[in-house]
Amino acid sequence: MSKHSFPVLKNDCLLRAARGLRTERVPVWIMRQAGRYLPEFRKVREEHSFFEICRTPALACEITLQPIRRYALDAAIIFSDILVIPQALGMQVEMKPSIGPHFPEPLSEPKDVEKLKKGCIDEELSYVYEAITLTRHELDGLVPLIGFTGAPWTLMCYMIEGGSSKTLSKAKSWLYKWPEESHNLLHLLKDAVISHLVNQIKAGAQLVQIFESNAEYLTPDLLKKFSLPYLKEIQRSVSSTITNLGLEMVPMILYAKGSAMVLDFIADMGYDVLGVDWTVAPSVARSKFSEGICLQGNLDPPALKADHETIKRLVIDMLQGFGTQSYIANLGHGIYPDIPPDNVAFFVNTIHEESEKMIKAL
Ligand code: 1CP
Questions:
Q1: How far is the CA of 307 from the CAs of 98, 156, 302, 317, in angstroms?
Q2: Where would a tag sit more exposed on the chain, N or C end, judged by fewer CB atoms within 10 A?
Q3: How far is the CA of 287 from the centre of ligand 1 (A)?
Q4: Domain count within the chain
Q5: Residue 58 placed within a domain
Q6: Which residue is closest in CA terms to ligand 1's atom 6?
Q7: pLDDT at 97
Q8: Alpha-carbon gap, residue 310 to 299, rounded angstroms
Q9: Which has the closest alpha carbon to 150: 85, 92, 59?
Q10: Which of 28, 29, 32 most suits a substitution to test ligand 1, by most atoms within 8 Å of the C-beta?
Q11: Residue 131 CB burial class (10 angstroms; 0-12, 13-18, ≥19)
């Protein structure tokens, strides 16, 4: 429960699954469910820049609701971006059409870290919290609202590379050349991430997801040094801060891309839900964890371009592999802009129908 008073939640299926409680069907949402594959999103983007939408609570709320109006999804995710944190720290970030994020002045050496602002998250990102509170009211309890953030290592990559990169050569070389300075930067980012998550929960987020999308680029040794300790501290610090404020702690989802490597390492970090990408078979992922841990994933996004018969077969395989309890259906990563919107409807409805049949037959 947050500090605000909100309409009663009518569909708590996804929250129950996240907490390991029984559900009568498998809940489903889609990473990047509000985005370029939706014509109604592209229409708003013709009139407004990406960050203008993020910074205008009414627009962010409208875009958050677009996929909820179209599909029987079991959660909404607030429209924002992981790169609002580097912006709040004083970096300039532009969103270039069909290229993606661009930082005109990325961090090129450790002394650049000194220029970053500290302790400014509450004020700089107040528009995210306003958008969350507004969206909770507009949702009217239809489904829960997810808040999110990038993890420190993933944010560090964008701040050094200056955008998306195929190798992360610059960011990774910091870890080898300047390990101590890299820790200083990760520490600063970790504090920003903790504040951002706490504020989102206070504003009304009913679950939060951390995206460590660049985990897969690390060696196991680098992962243990530069990613996992921060993820662990974020979980501990957010839950103790929320509990100390007298608020109810919400489930935390950790999505670390590169499941074939990272899944074993993130098992006991305190997260309620672990995201799985397509590099691990559902039954293999399930066999690694006790019943208590909820898993989320993992349809390969381009599979949504297949015919309905194929999508249905893949859905059934996924439900059989993960099982129908302590499981949240999703893709293995964000949806692509060229996915046909009708196939998303088919995916969502098939998850519901097939899982309901399986649970009834048990
Ligand atoms: O031009 C456009 O209209 C921008 C496309 C777009 C959208 C719709 C970007 C640019 N970001 C977003 C929204 C967004 N980003 C959400 C919204 C909520 C939802 O899920 O519906 C979320 C959760 C994110 C998270 C995000 N942004 C991540 C982590 C998830 C992931 O895909 O690994 C990352 C790495 C980013 C950076 C980013 N933002 C946008 C781009 C093109 C990128 C680079 C990575 C990429 O190409 O996906």
A1: 27, 39, 11, 16
A2: C
A3: 31
A4: 1
A5: yes
A6: 35
A7: 85
A8: 12
A9: 85
A10: 32
A11: buried
Domain membership flag for residue 2: no
Tokens of 149: 């953030």
For the Cβ of 312 lying below 6 angstroms from any atom of ligand 1, the answer is no
265-273 long-range CB contacts below 8 Å, 24 or more apart?
265/220, 265/223, 265/224, 265/228, 266/228, 266/231, 267/293, 269/228, 269/231, 269/232, 269/235, 270/232, 270/235, 270/236, 270/239, 271/235, 272/18, 272/19, 272/20, 273/18, 273/207, 273/328
**Segments of the chain with pLDDT less than 70:** 1-3, 291
Residue 347 lies in a domain: yes
103 Cβ closer than 6 Å to some ligand 1 atom:
no
Q: Is residue 5 part of a domain?
A: no
Q: State yes or no: is 32 an active-site residue.
A: yes
pLDDT of 120: 95
Classify 129 as helix, strand or coil: helix
197: CATH: 3.20.20.210
Amino acid, single-letter form, for residue 188 = L
Is the CB of residue 211 below 6 angstroms from any atom belonging to ligand 1?
yes
Any atom of ligand 1 within 6 Å of the Cβ of 77: yes
327 is catalytic: no
Q: What is the pLDDT of residues 235-253, one digit of tens each?
A: 999 999 999 999 999 999 9
Residue 70 annotated in active site? no
Of ligand 1's listed atoms, the one at least distance from the Cα of 100 is: 42
Ligand 1 geometric centre to CA of 353 (Å): 29
Backbone angles phi, psi at 151, to 5 degrees: -85, 160
Ligand 1 centroid–CA 68 distance in Å is 18
Q: What is the pTM of this model?
A: 0.97
- Does any ligand 1 atom lie closer than 6 A to the CB of residue 266? no
Tell me 266's DSSP state.
Answer: T
Has 22 been annotated as catalytic?
no
Q: How far is the CA of 80 from the centre of ligand 1 (A)?
A: 8
DSSP letter assigned to residue 217: G
**Pocket of ligand 1 contains residue 100 by CB under 6 Å:** yes
Q: Is the CB of 83 under 6 A from ligand 1?
A: yes
Residue-wise pLDDT for 122-171, tens only, equals 999 999 999 999 999 999 999 999 999 999 999 999 999 999 999 999 99
Its domain, for residue 319, covers 13-361
